[in-house]
Amino acid sequence: MSTTPQANESLIPVQLYGIDGKSRGDISVIGNPITEKIQRLGVEVNSKAIDFLSIALAVTAADTFVLRSESPDGWTRQLSLKIPLCEPDCWIALQSQLEKALHFLSGDMWNLEFTEGGFAPPLIPQDKRFKLTQLDNLNCVSLFSGGLDSTIGAIDLLDNGYKPLLISHAYKGDSAFQKKSIKFYQVNILVSK
């Protein structure tokens, strides 16, 4: 966090994982509760998976914090992200493909820079009182926003005999709606706010 640059008109510093940067006053935060959610899975997560999560969080932050209305044409944003990763070299080879995919999905122009110093996979606490998420009998994972498409996808999985762990990101107030939209099925929803 000490290397996080100061905010200015063209720069929004964002801290991935943790909230200690909030005390500085010019840093936005995202992904704080996700480390505990990962630990509660009770499985080792490799650094490439954490790097992918870091990229996804950085993209989510840029999409959330940079307003389309402030772009010259009112829509297309020029987004440059400098993302610290555990293993940046393997992602540098994919940089162009990721930028093209993000452009296709969002209509924005993306410039990704991957650097050293990323977040290491969280360790699983050895405290026996630490409550793990029950994964017994689950046989797949599905992204779940609570919107119509992901709800239908989750219902299709359930109706076809699958038992998914639903993974979601929610802004304040969304998680209750997400849980309500699928509650008649007894499923685990892993939500990060």
Taking pLDDT < 50 over at least 5 consecutive residues as the criterion, the unreliable ranges are none
Largest sheet: 3 strands, parallel
- Rg (CA only): 18 Å
Assign the structural class, choosing from mainly alpha, mainly beta, alpha/beta, alpha+beta, or little secondary structure: alpha/beta
Query: For the residues shown, what is the average pLDDT?
Result: 83
- Helix count, DSSP H or I runs of 4 or more residues: 6
Order of strands, main sheet, comes to 5-6-7
**How many β strands by DSSP?**
7
C-alpha termini separation: 21 Å
Topology order in helix (H) and strand (E) letters: EEHHEHHEEHEHE
The count of domains is 2
Q: Name the overall outline.
A: globular
Measured as a percent range, the helix fraction is 25-40%
User: Percent of residues in beta strands?
Assistant: 15-25%
